[in-house]
Design goal:
Distance between the termini: 27 Å
CATH architecture: 3-Layer(aba) Sandwich
Number of domains: 1
Structural class: alpha/beta
Largest sheet: 8 strands, mixed
CATH class: Alpha Beta
Radius of gyration: 16 Å
Bound molecules: NADP nicotinamide-adenine-dinucleotide phosphate
CATH superfamily: NAD(P)-binding Rossmann-like Domain
Helix content: 25-40%
């Protein structure tokens, strides 16, 4: 499965592309400028030469042509960026990882986008896509530090259970990550907004936190009959 990242030149998208490539998914860093994407790919390959052959670059059209596509643009351009690729994305799993937040002084505050979350907004704009919300809480730096596992749960939600399972299978391959099925896409509102709390904790405790929940003993990917 080839995975394309729209807006993949930023810290989150490029870190995710490198991480996915490192676990065996050929990944394409997309950008509005294929040259910017090429520079980002080359800088990643300079740090992680083993990714050669697994990490590609191109414009956002090239990323949208992949089998599964991640939107890693700022939140306020996620839906419009997806809509620019409506034909290429039709029927595909599209992962939304954007958080609608604003920093006011020392405070991070969640914003409420149309439809209550960025992911739901993207789904409404792209009804023929299978939108899954995931990766909101993984710090970009940890995503891109391939030498270390990422010690975190990944809350995943969406209205297409098969798509949520497919994304869970990908997440389960990332060392240290545990995928958790967090229900339907309506829960993306809470997942995205919670990122403001995590960023606030980062500031308060001068660190980078990631969430881990207690109490789930069964295989988190098990499906009830
Ligand atoms: N940073 C983190 O730790 C982190 C963690 C989890 C989730 N997230 C979420 O992941 C997303 C990406 O985060 P980031 O920090 O990597 O963001 P970013 O650096 O601000 O933006 C990522 C890329 O989006 C493209 N972009 C910027 N403005 C755009 C526009 N108006 N239209 C289309 N594309 C545009 C740019 O690529 P080109 O100019 O090359 O096209 C940019 O490099 C955000 O929504 C964020 O909330 C971030």
């Amino acid at each position: 499965m080839r995975i394309g990242i729209l807006g993949g030149t930023g810290p989150a998208g490029s870190g995710l592309a490198a991480r996915l490539a490192s676990i065996g998914y050929p990944s394409v860093i997309g950008s509005r400028s294929k040259y910017r994407a090429m520079e980002k790919r080359d800088s990643l390959l300079a740090s992680w030469p083993d990714l050669a052959g697994m990490l590609d670059s191109g414009d956002n059209d090239d990323a949208a042509a992949c089998d599964l596509v991640v939107i890693a643009t700022p939140w306020d351009s996620a839906a419009t960026t997806a809509q620019e690729h409506t034909d290429a994305l039709r029927g595909k799993i599209v992962i939304s990882m954007a958080n609608a937040l604003v920093r006011v002084g020392h405070e991070f505050q969640p914003l409420v986008p149309p439809r209550g979350s960025v992911a739901a907004h993207v789904q409404a704009a792209m009804p023929e896509c299978r939108v899954v919300a995931a990766f909101h809480h993984l710090p970009a730096k940890e995503l891109g530090n391939l030498g270390e596992p990422i010690d975190s749960d990944v809350l995943i939600c969406g209205d297409d259970p098969a798509a949520v399972r497919d994304v869970s299978d990908i997440v389960a391959k990332i060392p240290g990550c545990r995928p958790l099925d967090a229900g339907e896409l309506s829960n993306a509102t809470a997942i995205e907004a919670f990122t403001a709390v995590l960023l606030q904790l980062n500031v308060r405790y001068k660190t980078r936190v990631a969430p881990k929940l207690t109490g789930i003993k069964r295989d988190p990917r098990a499906v009830d009959d």
